[in-house]
Amino acid sequence: MTDDITRTAHPDELAAALMKMGALTPDWLPAYHAVPRHRFVPDVIWPGHADENRQDDRVIRGDDPELWWRAVHSDVPITTQWDDGAYDGPGRGAIPSSSSSMPRMVFLMLAALEVEHGHRVLEIGTGTAWNAALLAHRVGAGNVVSVEVDASLAEEARRRLAGFGMDPILVVGDGSLGYPELAPYDRVIATCSIGRIPPAWIAQSRPGGVIVAPWGPTYGGEGIVRLTVAHDGTASGRFTGSSAFMRLRQQRVERPPFRAYLSEPWPADGTRSSTTLSPDEVGEWIDMFAIGVQVPRMFCRVERYDDGSYTLWLYDTDVTSWATADYEPDAVEYDVRQAGPRRLWDELESAWRWWDNQDRPDFDRFGLTVGPAGNERVWLDRPDNLVPNSVPTT
Fold it and tell me: Main localization of the protein (predicted)?
């Protein structure tokens, strides 16, 4: 065991660490003890790392029970499925598709939800069912509706919940559609990330109801948004902090391969320029969020080299434009190439400099408003101070 509070080896130690950081509050402590995390984690896992998107190699409980136990009672996310269940081997798969979320994030989101006994709650993404169990203990199992797209995961979740005598309503289906049969809901919580709020979640919420979800743009960066639903069917609220969740399957963004953009070797038809903005300045999670909410339909990849340099590749999802920015240690100017109708590096740099000129606001200064037609706008500090868009969003 290390001295890092994110690494513990006992549920009581983890609870103490979570309470010390303000994530686990006294009102959720009874639920924490009543439905311990280790009862909701499968025997085969891939432990993650706090505040990082990477997983360790596979851990099998029967082979190394101590390592499994230590991972489960650490403040880290744990991947429990790869590639929608298609991968089942040693090492790691291509895309993580289900997990037991980081306990810190679990309780921060539950705190933001502000549930009360008797509230009817719609959960999107049952996963291992730990979050559903915590909610069921708090508001009553009959008041929890949890939607899971993967039938096998839903069956395992049902079995785990039955071990505690809990019988919340588990639905196998498309989480973006909610579950209208038992609407309206007082609270909606998503344990998967989204790039737009599904209209069904708002339509199935009571006026004054709360939606808590991880929301992030295509480019990257993601935060927990807490929306309050109004009588007119709109919803608005602030981001409460950063997050990193697996995407709702129905909202995964296709990222075309490199060869879709260049028909001949780089630099192909790219126009050369230079910039004083280092690619190293634009890669933090909040940087990516601030860029992404201004620059739609753009994503990036990084090509690294042995000497510490790298190339930041930018692409648009419409497969019309690309750009590169070359990072070299100790450089003061950086080579840029751009091709296509969009000048993607210019858009990125303009967006980053806007964020820089606003004193580099963190997630909690941003907010989101969903209009009556489902149109979304991100704002800074107040709803009428809209974040600019570099290109049309249509």
Answer: cytoplasm
Q: Enter the tokens of residue 152.
A: 């096998």
Structure-derived torsion over alpha carbons of residues 186, 106, 130, 215, reported in degrees to the nearest 10: 70
Amino acid at site 346: D
The answer to whether residue 394 scores a pLDDT higher than 50 is no
- 339 has which bridge partners? 322
| Range scoring the smallest mean pLDDT among 40-49, 184-193, 356-365 | 40-49
Average pLDDT of 184-211? 98
Nearest to 191 by CA among 142, 150, 243: 243
- How far apart CA 195 and CA 55 sit, in angstroms, is 23
8 A C-beta contact, residue 227 and residue 370: yes
Domain ranges of the chain: 11-249, 259-357
Length of the chain: 394
Q: Measured between alpha carbons, how far is 303 from 311 in angstroms, rounded to an integer?
A: 5
User: Could you say which of 74, 98, 101, 236 is catalytic?
Assistant: 101
Residue 101 falls in the annotated catalytic set: yes
Is the overall model pTM greater than 0.90, yes or no?
Answer: yes
Q: How far is CA 225 from the centre of its chain?
A: 11
44-77: pLDDT as tens digits: 999 988 766 667 789 999 999 999 999 999 999 9
Fold of the domain spanning 259-357: Double Stranded RNA Binding Domain (3.30.160)
DSSP designation for 386: B
CA dist list (Å): 127 to 136, 213, 366? 15, 15, 29
Cα separation, 187 vs 270, in Å, equals: 49
Q: Are 322 and 313 in contact (CB under 8 A)?
A: yes
Question: Which residue type, as a one-letter code, is found at position 268?
Answer: A
pLDDT at 300: 97
What is 11-249's CATH superfamily? Vaccinia Virus protein VP39 (3.40.50.150)
